[in-house]
Task: inverse folding
């Protein structure tokens, strides 16, 4: 705990910085278990066709709403489909929505945050007021309103979650830029006559990405939660495409008789979101232990 | 204080205009016009009728003029008529739904404060203790918990298996025939699960925030002074530290308002509670655009007001802010 290493001594030795990161990260058992869980989920999503015991769309009228058994470990749904197989395929949806929507949020947030932080003055003022305005809308209302005007589809969901989630990234990047643009390396670059975009994207941005990485990891967790809630309400991923959220809709419809439809998909969401949260916090603590 | 208040209110104007511009932009995201959607299923709607409706709603005018007209009706809370069968004024629909949602949200805010503050303070005071570790685990689960799932599980447990609590609506069907005492319990029992679910998401965040605030304050010089004076641990924690750690909570309360309002969509839909959230969900499903727009703007304005109240209370509590 007492070995506080300041950033200034770190960034002169680029190679050692990453090793230092690993050393700190490895010590954090929770973060490592989060990372392993995330890797496991990637594996499940990629190898879904080989892992799923049944075809996720295969309807079987003889096996409607059967409880967990050796044959169907997580039971069957209202159409006799295997819940485990549907959940395995559903992990693809969570992963896709999580990464694409956070990717969109980060692109927008980094771009606007960089502009605001680098140019300052009225650009900063305008963009930060935009952030304030966006934060006034209850996010769920805004997402639902946009979905009402567009069609509910997985692509629209990802775009909407992305476009309503960039504000915190923009604020982070702006704050980093405000301090980095006064550093010597930026001033040197300016004195050499480098163009603005070159200074912004090649010199300042790489130094400002650490907090974005943390925010992005935590953002994946948030996006997965939002997608599952939307799908649960029937305005997200549309059946028959399986997603954890829309399996839970069936769970609600059959709440009196089929507890397994409610229990397992929700548990999957909980563990996945927790894994990304642990990973994100682990990365943050490893990048800068002082923030703990 | 008066000048501070004026300044804060003045700053709301650009935010308000921004909110209306973004809401207006959302309306015009719709492929085609709202008229097409309202008349699509009606075989009697000829091109001429559509043109007349377009003129009626002013949709034949250029966008800036449309925006200005919409804005000038909006400031007198005129959101037009709902597209649904009843065709009532949007503002009337919202007005009858608002009290339920505000009541549940305020109650859950109080619950959050009542539980999260002691949790945060105790786990900071006894850092690294078993209690602290248990709280941290709870916080992590709370952050990752899909609240709609928790609602389902509690409905299965308390509603279906144990049969202790009702799982939908605000009162039972036989409410009118119950004796007064049973009526009160009937009301309360319908609210227990919704309020708990609504509070749950905020609980984790607030207790964690309270804990880190408290840890921050405990390190300050004036706490060391208080201890050096020989005050008891109790006095130091509850008299000196707590008051200072509580200050930023006011801001967080303001910031948590949009989340609570947005979250009401989920729990009101699940528990069939006739509030704002359920109306919003129903309007989205029915593509009732005037109602959606009205609620989007009102939701944002409620947030704006919540933030204003938070800022002003902060200034009242902390004289250093007023001089800014």
Result:
């Amino acid at each position: 705990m007492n070995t506080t290493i300041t950033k200034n001594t770190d960034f002169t030795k680029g190679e050692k910085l990453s090793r230092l990161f690993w050393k700190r990260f490895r010590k954090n058992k929770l973060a490592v278990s989060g990372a392993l869980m995330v890797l496991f989920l990637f594996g499940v999503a990629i190898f879904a066709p080989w892992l799923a015991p049944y075809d996720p769309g295969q309807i079987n009228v003889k096996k409607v709403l059967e409880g967990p058994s050796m044959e169907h470990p997580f039971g069957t749904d209202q159409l006799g489909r295997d819940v485990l197989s549907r959940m395995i395929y559903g992990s693809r949806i969570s992963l896709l929505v999580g990464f694409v929507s956070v990717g969109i949020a980060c692109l927008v947030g980094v771009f606007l945050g960089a502009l605001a932080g680098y140019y300052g003055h009225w650009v900063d003022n305008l963009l930060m007021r935009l952030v304030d305005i966006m934060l006034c809308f209850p996010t769920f209302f805004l997402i639902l309103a946009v979905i009402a005007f567009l069609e509910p589809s997985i692509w629209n969901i990802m775009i909407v979650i992305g476009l309503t989630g960039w504000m915190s990234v923009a604020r982070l990047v702006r704050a980093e830029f405000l301090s980095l643009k006064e550093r010597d390396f930026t001033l040197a670059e300016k004195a050499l006559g480098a163009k603005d975009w070159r200074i912004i994207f090649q010199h300042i941005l790489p130094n400002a990405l650490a907090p974005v990485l943390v925010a992005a990891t935590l953002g994946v967790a948030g996006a997965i939660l939002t997608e599952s809630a939307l799908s649960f309400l029937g305005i997200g991923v549309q059946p028959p495409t399986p997603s954890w959220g829309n399996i839970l809709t069936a769970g609600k419809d059959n709440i009196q008789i089929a507890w397994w439809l409610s229990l397992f998909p929700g548990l999957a969401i909980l563990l996945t979101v927790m894994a990304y949260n642990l990973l994100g916090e682990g990365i943050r603590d490893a990048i800068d232990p002082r923030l703990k | 204080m008066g000048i501070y208040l004026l300044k804060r209110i003045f700053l709301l104007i650009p935010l308000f205009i921004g909110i209306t511009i973004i809401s207006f932009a959302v309306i015009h995201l719709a492929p085609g016009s709202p008229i097409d959607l309202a008349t699509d299923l009606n075989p009697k709607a000829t091109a001429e009728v559509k043109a007349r409706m377009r003129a009626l709603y002013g949709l034949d005018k250029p966008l800036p003029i449309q925006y200005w007209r919409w804005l000038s009706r909006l400031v007198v809370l005129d959101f037009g008529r709902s597209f649904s069968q009843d065709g009532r004024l949007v503002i009337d629909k919202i007005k009858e739904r608002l009290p339920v949602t505000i009541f549940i949200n305020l109650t859950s805010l109080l619950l959050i404060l009542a539980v999260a503050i002691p949790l945060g303070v105790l786990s900071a005071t006894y850092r690294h203790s078993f209690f602290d570790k248990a709280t941290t685990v709870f916080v992590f689960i709370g952050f990752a918990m899909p609240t709609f799932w928790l609602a389902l599980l509690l409905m299965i447990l308390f509603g279906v298996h144990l049969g202790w609590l009702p799982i939908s609506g605000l009162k039972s069907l036989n409410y009118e025939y119950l004796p007064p005492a049973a009526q009160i319990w009937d009301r309360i029992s319908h609210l227990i699960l919704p309020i708990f679910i609504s509070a749950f998401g905020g609980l984790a965040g607030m207790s964690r925030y309270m804990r880190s605030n408290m840890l921050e304050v405990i390190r300050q010089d004036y706490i060391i002074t208080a201890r050096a004076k020989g005050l008891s641990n109790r006095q130091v924690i509850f008299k000196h530290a707590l008051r200072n750690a509580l200050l930023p909570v006011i801001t967080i309360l303001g910031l948590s308002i949009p989340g609570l309002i947005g979250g009401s969509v989920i729990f009101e839909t699940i528990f069939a509670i006739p509030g704002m959230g359920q109306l919003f969900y129903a309007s989205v499903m029915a593509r009732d655009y005037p109602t959606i727009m009205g609620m989007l703007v009102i939701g944002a304005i409620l947030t704006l007001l919540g933030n204003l109240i938070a800022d002003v209370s902060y200034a009242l509590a902390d004289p250093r802010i007023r001089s800014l």
